[in-house]
Fold each of these.
Amino acid sequence: MSDRYRIFVPHASETFTNYRPHGDGLVAFEVASRLAARGHEVHVMATTMDLTGSLPATLHLHPLSKPVHMGARGILDYLPQVRATYARLRRTGPFDLIHQLNPVHAGISLALFGTRVPVVLGAYVSPWPPGADSPSIMGAAEGPVAAFLRRAVTAVQQRLASAIVVTTPAARAQIVVPALERAKVFEIPHGIDPGLYDRGAAEPEEGAEPTIVFLGGTERRKGIYELLEAFKVVLRACPEARLLIAGAGGREGQIAALVETMDERSSISLLGVVERADVPQLMHRATVFAAPSYGEPFGMALLEAMASGIPVVVTDAGGAAHIVDSAGGIKVPVADAAALAAALIEILRSPQRAQAMGRYNRQKTESVYAWDRVIDRIEAMYARVLAGRRT
């Protein structure tokens, strides 16, 4: 690509990081750093920055002069810092684009209203379903007035934007003005580096214990309780099966206490937090990956499993429902432990089918979700936005 752009990122997740277990921050870093590696000049703001190693020369970081917590009050404190940083940088040259990365907090891009620079919002991920014990971006106990105000601010923000990015069709639920969809919505998923998860030509060891891996938060919305219930049935059908549970989310103690009461406890391992560098090794122990979430907004752990060449079982909800094809996994209803157990048993009992599913998933991550492919699509979107601006 010949065009190189000067891009201002007014918000890049609560934590902009390239190594901590923070999904939004890791995705934001990949987008910004890979754009910079291609020669674009990228200026990034975030509430917290925690990075290691060398960075591209054209990736510029702008820590806050006053740290804020991104609730409703925090956003109001954040906006003046956004405007001041932009104004200072603007004195050294014009920007081509403003790109507010994930999560797209309501109102932040409005701090730059009047700059006459195209604004890109996203990528948005799908919302958690109501009652899925997820905190609101305006606070854990958002009332009707706050919800109305957030929606109104979001509507203004989206109307003024030149482009809106969604990761999956499910994320279109975040667009509060449906009439905007055709005009300026681009579907671009999050990406992954398949090379990090390559196990080479090796297939799963013959005779190895059939293993189910879960990697994610231990909150109820992740489907962890349904998975434990389903595993009771799985173990009766496949007595040699094992369940590995990795991740944290505030309910580790409750999960551990529950597992201790189960007759199946000797076949369940609670691994706690797994460092990013160790995730490929964990995935390569899996016969099947289970993600029984109530409506996963996107599913980076799911992509990690697919890139590792293993089949998956997911719920038919949220972003995951649009990522997984029948050739690579099985979708089950939300909160249906019986259906989850049946799907897991079906894969565990069919080694050849499981291997074929894994190969399909690996190929799909390479052709659709590899970061190089994703950044190609982001650059193409930028070109369309700027072309439309010139006409």
Amino acid sequence: MTSPPAIPQSAPPPLDPRRNAYRPDVAASHLQGKVDAARFVTGTPGQIARPVVPLRKNPVPSAALETEAVFGETVTVYDVTEGWAWVQLDTDGYVGYLPADALSRDVQQSTHKVRALGTFMYAAADIKSPPMMHLSLGARLTVTGTTDRFYQLSNGGFVIARHVAERASPDRDFVEVAERFLGTPYLWGGRTRIGLDCSALVQLSLAACGIAAPRDTDMQQAELGTPVAINPDPDSLDGIAGLMRGDLVFWRGHVGIMSDAIMLLHANAHQMSVSTEPLPQAAARIKGTGSEIVAIKRLGVQA
């Protein structure tokens, strides 16, 4: 009796380079056996020492902005060449290049985080003292002491105490956090109140509530929440009835947050800002560009 012909096995898809550190010349040691590289390294820790640092796909200042890292976030450094560090962000696993001099190798264990959209680090416990830098929502801080109004930090700076919370003290309503960004300019790859994109609005708002979310829209669609059934026709009110505050609405390359059953909150390139509009209106406009709603996801969190 002859054996049946072997069924050819398809090769597994390549690892996503956005969240896996590998290049032809070097790769993270934990990827050995999964990718090809000339050498594998374990990497070394680093910490963002500037207010906000751009992470780029290529080590040139003109390369597109992939995302941003804010003060106090930690990274794993796999290579440093000609002033550029090739790193993986510990926050969401994103891989890219940033200026090597934006990193501190003296990594401090953070105790607190900035909970306001933005605040300042001062040189003294006095709001009239010169600010050392601006700090964005989610910036990580190491508090060493307190005064009546300020926290003192390990680097000698001071921040307003009411703008800061303990790392283990999350906000309760991620939609309310997202609504604070109304009017913020749209910036592809941005992650601060200076400018941000649609997926950063989702990621930052959830992070403020202690919920880890991936960086990009396709990752969020795949990994967040559970599906809500939708009508294939996004112009049909029947297709979007029953939505709830906090539901995430996805198009290819775009995501918005329902602030109630009708209104969509999103950072968008039409208004070039974070804005709200009725979902049927947004769906009709976006459909005119050739894109329809592809998923609605409901998170298992109170919103």
Amino acid sequence: MKRILVFAAHPDDDIIGCGGSLAKHVKLGNRVSVCYMTSGEAGSLDYSKAELARIREEEARNAAQVIGFQDLTYLRKPDGHLEYDQCSLKKLVELIRKKQPNIIYVHHPSDGHPDHRATFQLVNESLGRASVPLFQEYRGTPWSAETVLAYEVWTPLSDFEYVEDISEFIDKKVAALRKHESQIKLNPYDEAFKGLARYRGTMTGKGKYCEVFKVIKISKLS
């Protein structure tokens, strides 16, 4: 069994970026955990921030159940104003040490959304700090993930090194995306990201539906 840890700026980013791969991990018996940096409370004008945060956290739980995992962490940083700061860095370092993941998924560094880029910056720095026996302010035993893969959400990757065939799991991915009802009603991105997966499959020749990733660090994925 491998331990998988996903970092997502908002609820739904995990399913958009690597939901099919997560469903495959679940089928293989791997343990999946997800950390949401914000609760997505800026994602609609139809609700107060507090109400939308509650709704979107519940939607994330419902989506996770479709894929088959339930270990979720909400850091509740301000949506739309995520920053590289020492408090967030400490939480991520300690989470990596606690979960001891073999594989980490995170937003790619050139994503057009500032929260997505900030998430990558925080995670990238946390990887190094979590792995060394330094920094007395961080709790936990040092840990180094074997593999780190960066996924696409807001901005499609122009260059990628790893392709995952998710053809068997595309229906689960789309069903999970549709649990994010507060967002789907604003923009039917379930259809858009199914189309992107089909495009990735066609253009890479690796399967009917695929997810692609930028490799930040890699050892062995199987």
Amino acid sequence: MNHALALMLPLALLMGCKDDVASRAIPDPLILTEEAAGHYCQMVILEHQGPKGQVHLAGFPAPLWFSQVRDGIAYLKSPEQTAEILVLYVNDMGRAVSWHKPGESNWINANTAFFAVNSDAIGGMGAPEIAPFSDRTKAEEFITEHGGEIMLLAEIPAELVLTPIELDTVALETSE
């Protein structure tokens, strides 16, 4: 009897590990719908221009939605954020119809994206935006037209997304 128990114990431990790994599997991105509200602003995301983000957390069935990619990255880099982040998906602006219609299903993993930072792009909440692309060439074309530089997610400094910004009321009026 002790021999059978000794054989079953490692099997039970392995099954427990399997469940733990399965619960941390990276979920697929969700399609953006009218019900999606921004995590910070609680506004309908589809009503805003520019790329969006969705953060999936361990143990949560629905993602946190962000009206701007900048806000999603700020959530990742915030020292106060304690939840286990599984993935951040962002709109691939290289496949977007336009800046005003970034898409509902053209999501890419932020860890593999090329980000156009410090450009003249303004996002959905009127703040400077970080434009993500799956194709480096398209990111370079964007920078040629809008300025800035290309960075990978790990290269984006926390200060870039966490530092308060002053919104230019003229830019807000012209971007609507």
